[in-house]
Amino acid sequence: MIVEKLWPTFYRVSRSTTFRLSLLSASILALGVGVFASEPPKSSCKQRAEAYRSRVTQLKKDAHEKLRIGTREDAVNEFFEAHGLPFNVFRSGNHKEGVGTIQVQGGCAPRGCGSEDALIGLRVELSLDGTVIAEPVVGAQFTNCL
């Protein structure tokens, strides 16, 4: 009689555990197939990625060397033009900001990104009279990502 009362409870637990294990197995299998089925990056992708990284690295280096505190706005404008960045100046409180952003092909976008589109941007804080007052900031990121 006790066995008859416990059997339905045992059966429910067993069925629930079996379902959970089946779901876990299917998830692991799907993940494994996804990892092994993905293609390794192509050489052209790797070349674009290296070009993107080196362009960002060079921009950071050049900005640090040439856009020192005290540099005049006309020299900042020339720097932006030399690096292919548009130069836009905006007033922000008690100072101005020189900003430029371009869209490029980054190469080998991380998983979760829909394309290899990327941005490279440069921001420089300027005083109201047009001289650099802070270290320039270079930013780079992929777009179209989750």
Share in β-strands = 15-25%
Order of helices and strands: HHHEEEE
Strand order of the largest sheet: 1-2-3-4
How many helical elements? Answer: 3
Low-confidence regions = none
Number of strands: 4
Could you report the average pLDDT, rounded to the nearest whole number? 82
**How many distinct domains?**
2
Derived from helix and strand composition plus strand pairing, the structural class reads alpha+beta
Oligomer: single chain
Largest sheet data: 4 strands, antiparallel
* Through-space gap between termini: 57 Å
Q: Give the proportion of residues in helices.
A: 40-55%
What's the alpha carbon Rg, rounded to whole Å?
28 Å
How would you explain this protein's 3D organization?
- The chain has 146 residues and is an alpha+beta fold.
- It folds into two domains: 1-38; 43-142, no CATH class.
- Helix content is 48%, strand content 22%.
- It is built from three helices and four strands; from the N terminus they run H-H-H-E-E-E-E.
- The protein has a four-stranded antiparallel β-sheet, covered by helices on one side.
- The model has no long low-confidence stretch (mean pLDDT 82).
